[in-house]
Every structure is written in structure tokens, then in C-alpha cells.
Amino acid sequence: MSTFRSHVWSSVGKKMITGSTGLMLVGFVAVHLLGNLTLFIPDRGHAFNAYAYFLEHAVHGWLILAFEAGLLAVFGFHIVSAVTVAWTDKRKARPVGYALVRNAGGKSRKGLPSTSMIVTGLSLAVFVILHVKMFKFTDHPAVVHDGKEMKDLYAVVVAAFKQPLIAGAYVAVMGMLGFHLRHGFWSAFQSLGWNNDRAIVVLENLARVVAVLFAVGFLALPLYILFFVDPSVSGGHR
Amino acid sequence: MSEMTIHLKIWRQARGETKDSQKSQGRFVDYTVEKVLPEMSFLETLDLLNEKLTRQGQQPVEFDSDCREGICGTCGLVIKGTAHGPNPKTTTCEVRMRHFRDGETITVEPFRAGPFPILKDLVVDRTAFDRIQQQGGFVTANVGSAPDSNAVPIPKLDADKAMDAASCIGCGACVAACPNASASLFVGAKISQLSYLPQGGPERGRRALLMIGQMDREGFGDCSNHGECEAVCPKEISIENIARMRREFFKGALGGHDRKAATGD
Ligand code: HEM
Ligand code: SF4
Ligand code: FES
């Protein structure tokens, strides 16, 4: 194995990949969330559809293609390195487990968020596939805004979240995203070596804020649509 | 002082049972020890049990200890589900019986990790740590006569941090407590210690690459930043040393000169 590859795939290298891709995903998810906020505007999806139209057509459609390719790679690296750390290498390193394990408490950061990273992460992976299938690879009705014909993504989103089962599932998954980030956000900085005894206090508090903002930001949307949007009313919002 | 009766659930395993297969054939055996005094240490309770077993012609329970005052790092048991017992900042030999109730059942297990094979009962082979140290946990220096104190100025904070990291006694509790069986806290302490000092400077990149390489070859897990290691560490080594180890590794991996020296190519 070449030197470069052995460094990248060392125990420390894997963590640097997990951490850096994790932070990139945080960046992506933040932009995604900001874009989705247009759904809260009571304009029957005008702003939301226009935003989606812009993304699809910017730089003759190349922007979105390049971005999607990059995102796919980031997801891929994150999943492969994280699953190696938290599952395969972990299992190899302790072939015989303990009969009794108690959390030590005190300065330990071990808890449900940190121990469930593999569960919340893999759930997110399944979610992302279903999510893309539901909203991207589906037949979109057409709508005309400002004289331009565009996909009525808004109608698809509203139709989906009007189903309590789907809205409920989204709420559950976004709770998991919050858990993932409650540990993941500060952990990524630690993995990249950007941490010390003083910074960790700030980073952990930041992780709490990010976790709540992301989870609530995303789960508010399906709930809002489920309870407050009425497609039969002009403007779409009660 | 009132005498206590303590029930022990102890992992017993014959010599050579796991060395190769890693498949455990050990088992828990229940014992009862009477006339335990609250001021006795946990290891003295095991001594008491072993006297009884020896009198009965049975094999005593094997466990490691040496100084019995928390400085050598030889002892190490998982007591009631926590490495070095339920109290923080202590080694196994510093655990006292007053922390347990009369009639309590205490589960006692060895430090479990693939790279720490069980030799017998509660004794594990921790020479993996020695092999990591041998890769670079030292300074290659021409040792002349002792230099004048303060001949090499070191900022107070750096000296303090180096001293904190240097207090690691190599007990292995961090590995035992880590859900991933990672040795990152131990290796982080050893790498950080020298990275704070000018004497450690010339070899720092090479040291990080070699020691981490050996840690991986020994089969320790990767670190998920649970921080359980810091909580059980008898010397309160901070996980900031793990962050620092990662910085050292990154710089070392980028440094061409160091890299050649490290891998010999
Ligand atoms: C798509 C499927 C995903 C899977 C399978 C997954 C899995 C994991 C796992 C298992 C870990 C823990 C690694 C360890 O133990 O060190 C982790 C860490 C992390 N994840 Fe994810 N994750 C996914 C998606 C996401 C998303 C969408 C985000 C961001 C919004 C994210 C952000 C993070 C961060 C910041 C970390 C911390 C990295 C570190 O400890 O260095 N992950 N992920
Ligand atoms: S870091 Fe702490 S727990 Fe780990 S070997 Fe050193 S003293 Fe023991
Ligand atoms: S026997 Fe020396 S530290 Fe416990």
C-alpha cells in the first residue's frame, strides 16, 4: 500500500475524512434548509418553485450537475469512512465484549447521541434515498409563474406532507438528524484536530444549538404543511 | 468497623485459551468473601479470596498489581462495568470497599480488547503499548552531562501541558473503557507530551506517523470521540491530547522529509 493511501486510511485519516465530509454535509444541509424556508411564504409555492427553477437552470444546468456529483462523492466518503470507524473496525477491535458496561459519567461525552451515530447515520442514508426518489425522480405537474413554465415542485411537496404518515416519518428522521449533529458537530472539529480544553466548551454548546436549529427547522416544515396549508384556499395558506 | 459480605462474579479463564482464536472460552464464577472491612482495598478483598481458594486447594484468581498506590499502571480491572471501578480519577488498586454495600454483587472483568489478549483470568497482555512506545515515544538525543536548568527556555503553559500528558501511566483503562477499543488517549498523551517540548521538535512528524502506524497494526479501534477514556483515566488525561495527536499526524503526513524517514521509502 502506498504511503499516501496508508495515511489516508489510517485510524486518524479515517476520522479526518469523516469529520471533513460531515462538516461539508452540515454546510449543504444548512443551504437546503434556508432554501426550504421559501415554503413558508404564503404564495402558493411561487417563491419555492422559482428557487428550484433557478437551481436547475443556473449556468445552463451545469451548476446543479457539478454540485450533485460533488455531493454524491461527499456522502459516499462520509458513509464509507464513518461505517468503518463506528462498525467494522470497532467490532474487530473487541472480539469478546463485556458482560456489564456502565457509563463513567463525569467528563465523558458518551451518551445516546454518540453511541447511536451508526443508527441515526444509516437511517439518514435510507431517508436520503427515499427523499430524493419522492421529490426529484417523480412526475412533476407543470405550472406557469411569471410567464415561465416550470415544475410545480410545491404541489408535490404539499401532496406528500398532507399525508400524516409521511409528515410523521419526516419528523422522526429530523429528530435523528438532530441527534447525529448533537455529537457529530463538535466531534468533527475534534477529529480534524481543531480543538482544545477551552474550545470544546464552545463547540459542544454550538453543537446543541446546531442540532436544535436543524431538527426544528426541518421538522417544522412538514408539520406546517400538514396542519396549516390548505391547497384549496387562494395563496395556499389558511 | 462493620464487616461486610461481598459477592464477586469474576471472569475465570485458563492460560492460553484465547491467544489465537480470540474466541473466548472463559466464564464467570461466583464467589463470596466474608469479613470484608470497609477500609480494605478492592485488591485486598481479592487477596482474601485467594487465601481462601488456596486453602481449599483451588487455583487463585490471577490479577495484576505492583505499587498498589496508583503510580505504576500495573493494575487494571473492569469493576461493576467501569474500568478502574466506579470512582473517577483512581486506579484499581485505589478502589476501597467502603464504596460498595454489604451483600452487594460485584462483576469483575479483565480489560477487554483484541490487542490486549487475556493471559489468565484477569491478567491481560499490554505489551502492545510497549511496541507503540518503541516506535517513537522518546527523543533520540546525545545524552551528555545534565544541562543547566533553564538552559532551554520553555513557556510555563507548554511545560504544564507536557507534564499533564506525561502523567499517563500506561494502564490501558482508556482502551478498556472505549466502546471502540481505541488507544487514542494513550497514544495522544505520549505524542503530545513530546510535542510541547523543544527536544521533541526534530522528530515530531516521524514520531506521530510511526506511533499511529503501530497503534493501527496492533489492531486498536478508531476513535469516535465518545470521551469515555478521559472519564476513566486515573490521571485525568484530556482528550485535547487526541486532537493534538491528529494535528501532529496531519503535519507529519504533509512533511516530505519526515515521511521518508518514517516509512523508509
Ligand atoms: C447519509 C448517511 C449518513 C451516515 C451513514 C452517517 C454515519 C455517521 C457515523 C456512523 C458517524 C460516526 C463516526 C464515528 O464514530 O466517528 C458520523 C459522524 C458524523 N456525521 Fe454522519 N452519517 C450520515 C449523514 C450525515 C449528514 C446528512 C450529516 C450532516 C448534516 C452528517 C454529519 C456528521 C458529522 C458532522 C459527523 C462527525 C464526524 C466526526 O466525528 O469526525 N452525517 N456519521
Ligand atoms: S491515558 Fe490514562 S487511562 Fe490511558 S493509559 Fe494513560 S493513564 Fe491509563
Ligand atoms: S498497582 Fe500500581 S497503579 Fe495500581
Please write out the topology:
The complex is a heterodimer of chains A (238) and B (265).
Chain A lengths: L2 H6 L2 H26 L9 H12 L4 H32 L18 H4 L1 H19 L6 E4 L2 E4 L1 H9 L2 H28 L7 H30 L10
Antiparallel strand pairs in A: 1-2
Helix pairs in contact in A: 2-4, 2-8, 2-9, 4-6, 6-8, 8-9
Chain B lengths: L3 E9 L14 E10 L5 H14 L22 E2 L2 E2 L21 E5 L8 E3 L2 E2 L2 H8 L21 H11 L6 H5 L6 H12 L8 H15 L9 H5 L7 H15 L1 H8 L2
Parallel strand pairs in B: 1-5
Antiparallel strand pairs in B: 1-2, 3-4, 3-5, 6-7
Helix pairs in contact in B: 2-6, 3-5, 5-6, 5-8, 6-8, 6-9
The site of FE2/S2 (inorganic) cluster has 13 residues of chain B, from loops.
What is the gist of this entry?
The complex is a heterodimer of chains A (238) and B (265). Chain A has 238 residues and is mainly alpha-helical. Helices cover 70% and strands 3% of the residues of chain A.
What tags apply to this protein structure?
heterodimer, A: 238 residues, mainly alpha, two-stranded antiparallel ribbon, 2 strands, 3% strand, B: 265 residues, alpha+beta, Ubiquitin-like (UB roll), Fumarate Reductase Iron-sulfur Protein, Chain B, domain 2, 2 domains, five-stranded mixed beta sheet, 9 helices, 35% helix, binds protoporphyrin IX containing FE, binds iron/sulfur cluster, binds FE2/S2 (inorganic) cluster
What is the rounded distance between the termini of chain A? Answer: 63 Å
- Summarize the amount of helix of chain A as a percent range: 55-70%
Mean pLDDT over the full residue set of chain A = 91
CATH architecture of the largest domain in chain B: Orthogonal Bundle
Question: What is the string of SSEs of chain B from the N terminus onward?
Answer: EEHEEEEEHHHHHHHH
Helix segment tally of chain A: 9
| Biggest interface, chains and residue tallies | A-B, 50 and 59 residues
Taking the sheet with the most strands of chain B, its summary is: 5 strands, mixed
Given helix and strand content, the structural type of chain A is mainly alpha
